[in-house]
Amino acid sequence: MRITGWHALGEEAVGVVQQAVSLAGRRGHAQVTPLHIASAMLSAESTASVLRAACVRTQSHPLQQDVLELCLDVALDRLAVARPASDYRGARVDPAPSNAFLAALKRAHAHRRQGEGVELEQLVLSILDDPSIDRVMRAAGFSSSRLVRGSIENAVSSEQNSGMAGGQPSLQTVHRSVVAQLTDHRRYSSQGAVNLCKPATSCFLSLLA
Fold first, then answer.
1. Which of 58, 95, 103, 194 is deepest in the core (most CB within 10 A)?
2. Are 138 and 58 in contact (CB under 8 A)?
3. 53 vs 151: CA distance, rounded Å
4. Measured between alpha carbons, how far is 67 from 203 in angstroms, rounded to an integer?
5. Nearest alpha carbon to residue 143 among 134, 131, 153
6. H helices then E strands: how many in the chain?
């Protein structure tokens, strides 16, 4: 997939976009959308789990993260499936970036520091501004994507402040801690799974409306 300004993406951001392209290809989608990017972000490993960590910090239920992944899956299932595109030699080509994704990428570029690539946090923040992501997050029980966005902005601000003061944990350390908490939450009792049914049902009704 060719994207103008691809060279301006940081290493972790490139990795997430590549995962999103692969996801769109596996699902037979003609374009890569913010939904694919968000799904790739939630499945990212370790330090690339910025979105997942922010969702854990702002969720109202220990299993709300699972509901969000379910709602994203439903939203992706609703996207049109197209025949795989190919070039003049018949070789399969990657899905093209959607206008919504390009707009998000432009927003991320606008906020990057001069002379540096787009960091993963900047890409996450730009994706959270997309209406389709906000709708999915509301369906999953989050008040809005802005709440999650605020959590990321606060974490980035705290990291910058601690970097100047010294002796405070980095944002990557915070991410690992939150992901560890998420693992513990997923060991919840069967009663927790029962309580998950209501928001999951709401998710389906909202997205299928």
1. 95
2. no
3. 9
4. 8
5. 134
6. 10, 2
The backbone torsions φ and ψ at residue 78, rounded to the nearest 5 degrees and listed phi first, read -85, -10
When pLDDT is cut at 50, 70 and 90, the band that residue 159 belongs to is low
User: φ, ψ for residue 116 (rounded to 5)?
Assistant: -120, 160
Helix (H) or strand (E) run with residue 68 in it? helix 64-77
Q: How far apart are CA 173 and CA 170, in angstroms?
A: 5
Report residue 27 as tokens: 């699902």
- Strands (DSSP E) along the chain, which ranges? 31-32, 96-97
Give SS3 for 92. Answer: strand
Neighbours of 61 (CB within 10 A): 17
* Candidate from 7-16, 160-169, 193-202 with smallest mean pLDDT: 193-202
Residue 62 to residue 64: CA distance in whole angstroms: 6
Residues ≥6 apart with Cβ < 8 Å to 177: 169
Query: Residue 150 corresponds to which tokens in the numbers above?
Result: 């605020």
Classify the phi-psi angles of 45: left when phi > 0, otherwise alpha if psi is within -120 to 50, otherwise beta: beta
> Which residue in this structure is represented by tokens 């049914």?
197
Cα 3 from chain centroid (whole Å): 19
CA distance 83 to 85: 6
